[in-house]
Specification:
By secondary structure, the protein is of the alpha/beta class. It contains nine helices and five strands; from the N terminus they run ββαββαβααααααα.
Length: 212
């Protein structure tokens, strides 16, 4: 394994890579690279025809190519087809889950220094999601950290969906309509959007009844 600068025209994106990013998040990724630079190297493997196949960083390459950059730093690995595909999936799929209390505290600090518009211009959060998150909980951070270990068994779980733009608009509208009910019936919920989604699913199950 080595790190070297490789011309962009020698890098090719594999057709088998399932990881995709919509135009909105590509734009945010571009803003992040413009602001902070390329802080994470691409991962590639050398091919017999002299090109390099992308294993991680396909979206970063797409953004960089549009900016006119001629070469980028890459981690070069020597792997067979099966191992290359496995590494690609590991790099794209194996990651931790945010502790929502700690993430809320982190974002509160960010918003003390940066305008909300700048934060939303880089992060994939919606405005409603960001505001719900930074208002998470009523306890002080000291109390939260003190009870963190005890609360692990009750940590919130994460769901990930892939939606079209039109589908996302419908989901956001449904959740927004339920938010007043969440605020009224559940107080200062630590996960208002998750509670709204739960209520939506619960009502569907109540209407359809139990399957026979």
């Amino acid at each position: 394994m080595k790190i070297t600068n490789i011309p962009v025209d020698l890098l090719r994106q594999p057709q088998w890579n399932p990881n995709q990013m919509d135009d909105g998040n590509l734009t945010k990724l571009g803003r992040s690279i413009d602001r902070f630079g390329l802080v994470q190297n691409l991962v590639v493997r050398h091919m017999e025809d002299g090109t390099y196949e992308m294993l991680a960083g396909n979206q970063r390459l797409q953004v960089l190519s549009q900016s006119g950059i001629m070469e980028v730093p890459c981690v070069v690995v020597e792997l067979k087809d099966g191992e290359a595909r496995l590494l690609c999936q590991a790099l794209n799929r194996v990651h931790g889950e945010d502790d929502l209390g700690l993430r809320a505290e982190l974002l509160r600090h960010v918003l003390e220094e940066l305008p909300e518009e700048e934060v939303l211009g880089i992060l994939p959060d919606t405005r409603m999601g960001l505001e719900s998150l930074v208002n998470l909980g009523q306890d002080s951070m000291d109390d939260y950290l003190e009870n963190w270990q005890v609360a692990q068994a009750a940590r919130l779980k994460h769901l990930q969906f892939q939606l079209t733009g039109q589908q996302m608009e419908s989901v956001e509208e449904a959740l927004e309509r339920l938010m007043p009910e969440v605020a009224t019936g559940h107080g200062s919920s630590p996960n208002a959007r998750g509670t709204a989604l739960y209520l939506l699913c619960r009502r569907y199950l109540d209407v359809t009844g139990n399957p026979q």
